[in-house]
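> tool_call: predict_assembly(chains=three)
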Amino acid sequence: MGTILFLIFFPMIIALILLVSKEDKARDVIVKIAAFVIAAVSIVTAVIFFKNGGQNFPAHAEIVNYVMMAIEAALALYIIYIGIKHKKYLASLFAIIQTPLLIWFELTEGHHIAVQNNMYVDRLSIIMILIIGIVGSLITVYALGYMKDFQHHHHDEPDRRPWFFFVMFIFLGAMVGLVTSNNMIWMYFFWEITSLSSFWLIGFTKTEEATNNAFRALIMNLAGGLGFAIGILILGKVFGTLELSTMLAIGSVYGELVAIPAAFFAFAGITKAAQMPFNSWLLGAMVAPTPTSALLHSSTMVKAGVFMIIKLAPVLGMGNFAGIMVMMVGGITFLFATFAAVSQSNAKRVLAYSTIANLGLIVTCGGIGTAEAVWAGVMLIIFHAVTKSLLFLCVGTAEHNIGSRDIEDMDGLFVRMPKLASFMIIGIAGMFLAPFGMLISKWAAMTAFVDSGNVILVAIICFGSAVTAFYWIKWMGKLAGIVAGEERIDQNVHKEETFVHMTLVILTVLVCLLFPLVSMYMLVPYLEIVFGGLSAMVLSADNMIIMVVMIAVLVLLTGLFFGKTNKKIVPIYLSGANKGDNLTYEGSMHEPVEFKLRNWHMESYFGEKKMNLIGGVACTLMLVIGIGIMVGTLISLLGGVA
Amino acid sequence: MSYIAKSPWVIHYDGSSCNGCDIEVLACLTPMYDVERFGIINTGNPKHADVFLVTGSVNEQNKEVVKQIYEQMPEPKVVVAVGICACSGGVFKQCYNILGGVDTVIPVDVYVPGCAARPEAIIDGVVKGLAVLQEKRDNMVKGIDAPAEEPEAAAEEEKTEEGGEN
Amino acid sequence: MIIKMIISIIAYLILAPFVGGILAGLDRKVSARMQGRVGPSILQPFYDVLKLFEKEPITVTKVQDFYVMIFVIFVIASGVIFFAGGDLLLVIFVLTVASAFLIIAAYSSNSPYAQVGAERELLQMMAYEPMVLMTCIGFYMYCGSFAVRDIIVGTSMPFLPLIGIFIGFLFILTIKFRKSPFDLSMSHHAHQELVKGLTTEFSGKTLGLIEISHWYENVMLLGFVFLFFANGTVWGAIIGVLVCIVTYFFEVLIDNSFARMKWQFAFKSAWIVALVFGVINIFVLYLIV
């Protein structure tokens, strides 16, 4: 209990300290120490709760509820105010509806509902805490160097870095609170804080685009928050409980009924996880400084959405419409977000679409709700958090050094910034290639999809996987190209950045090597408690061994042979006379002609707008049908009771 | 016996010819002559090729290209000049832009005369080139650098042998 | 069991290049005959590869050969997993890794021709991958396992229930074998258009190794065809081998009767086939299994 509270409050205290420390040096030291402490404590937490597999904490304190309520009310007032100020009335409207609704409920009925355990830790929370504590704090360290450059590039603007780090650390604390709250009202509180942190960070640059995108994110997340609030209301009024654990326990018996609040909670998860039709906020969020994208929009915050859905999986897996809605939304999002990624050349947008797609996959796993699917989903969360943050941070560094985040400008990055390019290549390989992590989980997901008996999902994952390989390999190829005449430009990379990259690379490889252990000691026991065990091992021991051997072979071969050759180096073939520099050939009239190489984006097939439209319409349809049926059931239920 | 002579891959380059020889080169690929019998493949890529078939003479514009194609072919390699223009410049010899035969820029191993060279002669030339290829390969194994200079005597000899074809 | 596995691995490692090479030789001979030519010796592919090993070693970048080496190792590894009775999906994933490395090798040269080839290869991968995955899934659904060792001893022939998938697989086999009309990224015949695309910057031994790994790959792909007929009996095995041979010559026939199509057609048709034959077949499997 103590460590958990520490993990929630310590970042918040650090955040307040950072808010007032204006000196670069002081900030460097504080952030580094804080990051180290958070990472260390989260590991300690993991070790403490590892043996007994978790614990419930009553944590009764009436005062906490009132403090939360007060903060919520204040935040709502703030949202209403800025909504009106920026003429984004929808944001104000959502705040006006949901917060009073919830406060009214809390003061009247919620007050009388006895809550046994406000907080808990189980193995899934431990995994999430490890991700938040290790990956999250690494990103804050990275942000130190990055934000120096950022300030340097925007030197005519006021230095608002204290605010930036304040929000980052607040967010870390809120995330830990979110994954350890058993009381749904508490969870809602942390949920809203993450939404708001995201809003502040997206709008950090205060440009018009940033403000608009920040509001879009806020509005969509508030819509999800409204769903959350309605879910709490139904849970409290109909089932007389506010606890997640109780809800899941009832759900294992009355799946059909509990599916109703579950559908609303899942809806909140879907908005937070940026599933179609709500994916536009995550893309818009890419205007924010890159550490924000890495922290909020790839490794942690969006994971809150899928965490919720994975939590609900036992209820969703009972074959009700809520489950079907969730899995179809996830599947459709996976497919169309993957397609859209092909047409993008902006690296951050490719990463954003890939994030949406992978979240889609996790959401689908949660929607299927079998033990195997959840295994795949959690594995996806782990691998995705590590690998995607690595990629985001690499892109951030590349952007500051080559002055562009466009993949087409990353020609010959291997020559210009060899270290960074190899990190990026490892990250990309980690996203889709065997023997790396994402593929392992995708494999498990594929098996789970097939076993779910849904032929549409089978088709979706087959086509989606094929397209995934396409856009990653073309990026990898771009990086791997050895372009002549380029010079190394990586002298100016901050050492914090390189340190974080290295750590994440090591983590990427390490989680791949250790995933059998993670599975054996963390996931399988968790699934045994929640689902009563896996029907079979998701991946057979043979396959796991082959995977590990493959990694070893790859590492070994790279170490031994990479870049070593005794062969004569000759110029490339340019179908005419190569001028000898591998960049120009002799054109007609003896004119030197330079060539440029560009990738395919297949705009006419995978155009972003088209994909978003189709995916958005299909997902909206699913949501409307799913929520509609739930509301219908609820009404008939209440009518029946009356 | 090495395998080089059993699988000569050809790259064909057209200098400034009248295209007569080129048509004949392509004729070699047709069922009538079928050079694939000898394992000959017409590649488009100097890096895959063993035999460089040049038709037409070399001019100011393409001398760099001819040189580079030759340089890009990995050893061992032979050059076969196909047609009288490639051998000596032919009727174009006096043109303002013509340098002369292929041997003005790269060493030629086999000369196939004719205007246009007949497919039989071309095939014969390539097959003759195989002996040279074999020899170069043997030299490579022995560690002797292939003679980069023009093999004058041998070339002359082959020229007369092939002479009767036209 | 383990001994049997080791024997089949060793047999694959030694025999596959011979079988693959002879098949390639037969391909060229038969193609020549179809075109009214005499054609080369059946051993010609071996001569070609041995010759490539005799050529001067040259390269355009220091890293290219490394990528190709990984490609070769992983292609062979995928075959080894297949013939050791391993997991079909793993086979496909390892093969994807291999292809990715070949493509990256081509990209690494930064040569325009190599890159055009690489992009086309990528496109082909995208075109055939769904159908390949569905083939694995089809086997899993019918035989209850992804493992080749379980599929091969199944009591009933998967061919009839998987007929749609079989047709789809045949279709993408044309892409995998690099045959017309889908020999977009590199082609064995008349490869003037792209200067042999993907392999533009590879020469000598490197090119020879790529050729050998294609033989390995082709044998493994025919192994997939064989699986459709395996039912644990000798008759099943005989039918399987016969169908493999027929399939191969069918692909040669297709190769000789079509011109190269545009990539758009390759992409669309492969996906439509996967959607129609693959998905419908899987749907039917859900109903009957």
